[in-house]
Amino acid sequence: MPHEYKIASMPGDGIGPEVIDAALDVLDAVARYSGEFTLSFDNLLWGSDFYKATGTYLPSDGLETLKKYDAVLFGAVGAPDVPDSVSLWELLLTMRGSLQQYANVRPVKCLSSIEPVSRHVRPRDIDWMFVRENSEGEYAGQGGRTHSGFGWEVATEVAIFTRHGVRRIMRFAFETAASRPRKLLTVVTKSNAQRYGLVLWDEIAEEVSKEFPDVKWDKMLVDAMTVRMVRNPQSLDTIVGTNLHIDILSDLAAALAGSVGIAASANIDPTRKSPSMFEPVHGSAFDITGKGIANPLGAIWSSAMMLEWLGEKQGSMLVMNAIEKACAEGNTTGDLGGKLNTKQVTAAIISMLANPVRAYATGTTNVFPQFAEYGDFDNDLGLVNFEGGSLVMNVCSSRDNKHGHHSTTEVIGTKGRILVNGEPRILPVDISDEHGTRYLDQLDHMDHTDMFLPTFKAELARF
Ligand SMILES: NC(=O)c1ccc[n+]([C@@H]2O[C@H](COP(=O)([O-])OP(=O)(O)OC[C@H]3O[C@@H](n4cnc5c(N)ncnc54)[C@H](O)[C@@H]3O)[C@@H](O)[C@H]2O)c1
């Protein structure tokens, strides 16, 4: 029996409904094609129009209602005629806090054919996982105003760092880093200037690191971090920081990787006591609302994260592969330099799902630059596990390759390409995902030849 998931869909304001419509269409399609799960959606119209009509963003039983769902898919909140501090606090921050979604996870990587904006950054250099403390810190809501309206008015905004809150996000970040191939974590801080909260932050990072001896970690002041992201992006993998720091850094990251329109996020309750909430990073985007040109990828990518969190890893990977392939073939909106509108990009992704490559990646086992002699190319070779087997692939790492950069892979045999269903196939495969091994620089020094040559030959023999 396919598993059935109940999803609360909250499109919210501005371009929220446009991109959530797109995500729902893609989710419907992937559920249909995969046959392994079903999704039912309830549309909850809690946004600024609801606020203007009722005086509240969330109905009094809103949080209890949300708890009945397996997950929440959220668009954006914010309207020109409502102060941002009201809309953000009364809806988004209330949900994140009350549902104890204390880990905000934001993957950022360059998709095929999207050039990074900085000439210092090569597409393959950006494959980051941001972990943002999502329940306290600078957005704890502590503070107030006194002497309102007088010349000596005073306002305080107090950042809160609790041992419990910092420890749980550090553990989550170290676990996330440990689950990724590079096992590398950077702890963002500002403990030189903020000598109480962020000194505690640093101390707890140090304590928690002892539970994760396999994770290599370093510490970075947030100001220097911006420079490192631009100048030395390949030195980063998993990044953890406070509510405010990662809010800012992840927007910079998204812009470096192409556009804020592709940035996805998950508000996770790691205890699974409450539903987690998945949303594009961008806001309501008043300037393009109603024009039909919003980039839907951030919302669609977020829905892939939702499937993964629900345990539907293959469905999630199908969506990600379809996104990659659509981008590789130039099906993008204007913010990424393309000519398509929201609906056309969505249709392109759905058509990729409708005609999936029969074998799709479930992860990579390794990459072997040493085996270049087996191919007629000068890229690296990898072995990818597919449903129903493994294939040898050519990792197209050159920028001018028309199929894109490192995250596009080309399946090959010893001579020529592998035929899948009688046709040469280019498989868009994320080889640097959580199952994979980041494939280039850091592996070059390793000699896997003896260990993997028999596997490699056996896999070739299968085809
Ligand atoms: N999570 C959220 O709901 C969230 C996040 C950020 C901002 N906001 C709210 O949204 C409103 C507007 O905020 P803002 O202008 O600072 O940020 P924004 O993210 O809405 O827009 C910033 C810029 O990015 C562009 N952009 C954003 N998403 C895009 C997409 N999918 N495709 C193409 N271009 C895209 C916009 O056109 C705009 O030029 C405010 O009310 C703010 O409070 C909400």
TrEMBL record:
Alphabetized Gene3D superfamilies for the sequence: Dihydrodipicolinate Reductase, domain 2, Isopropylmalate Dehydrogenase
Cofactor(s), by name: Mg(2+); Mn(2+)
Residues of the Isopropylmalate dehydrogenase-like domain: 6-349
MF-aspect GO terms: metal ion binding; NAD binding; oxidoreductase activity, acting on the CH-OH group of donors, NAD or NADP as acceptor
Keyword line: Manganese, Metal-binding, NAD, Oxidoreductase
InterPro entries on file: ICDH/IPMDH (IPR050501), IsoPropMal-DH-like_dom (IPR024084), TTC_DH (IPR011829)
Family: Belongs to the isocitrate and isopropylmalate dehydrogenases family.
Protein name per UniProt: Isopropylmalate dehydrogenase-like domain-containing protein
Species for this entry: Lipomyces starkeyi NRRL Y-11557
